[in-house]
Amino acid sequence: MSSPTAFPTAPPPATADAPVRVAAVDAALAPAVRALRVAAEQSPFVGDTGANLDQALADPASEAMAILAGERVVGFYRLDFAAAAIAGRVFAEPSVGLRSYLIDRDAQGRGYGRAAIAACCDDLRRRHPQRRLLALTVNLRNAAAIAAYRKAGFADTGELYLGGDAGPQHLMLLRLQPEAAPSSPDSASDAP
Known about the structure:
The chain is of the alpha+beta class. The chain is built from six helices and seven strands, in the order E-H-H-H-E-E-E-H-E-H-E-E-H.
């Protein structure tokens, strides 16, 4: 498995036809999030958006997030702050899990997905600066999503998670913050 230091940071956002931003789902955004749909072939990998939203809102260790292009809701994701939320394991650095990520079927192919990952990373750096890694799992059969996550800056760790409902999944990571410099043994003796 590659070292997390090898994982790139998020690239600049793709060009979308409206500015892309992310916002916590509130009562005003929830109906538009519930109306999001994906193509039939994507459904086994994403699940029901309404159920995913309800789970995120009910979980104190999660944040339900809307993806907006201008003022229009075009996507959704869930941030999961539980220690072993992704792949059932704890990472060596503070991490956050990205789950239930989707762009509405009518908004796909416009650069919103990549722009939203960049906006998500910016949001995490601002609101949760102690988190150093963004982690997700993606089904081995979901080639389009794997390619999209790679374009957005995620690196495949080479590790497989076998607990997914739809089958084995790649574990992918994206570095949010630079890796902390290791302290040298001499630095402690140099202190006054």
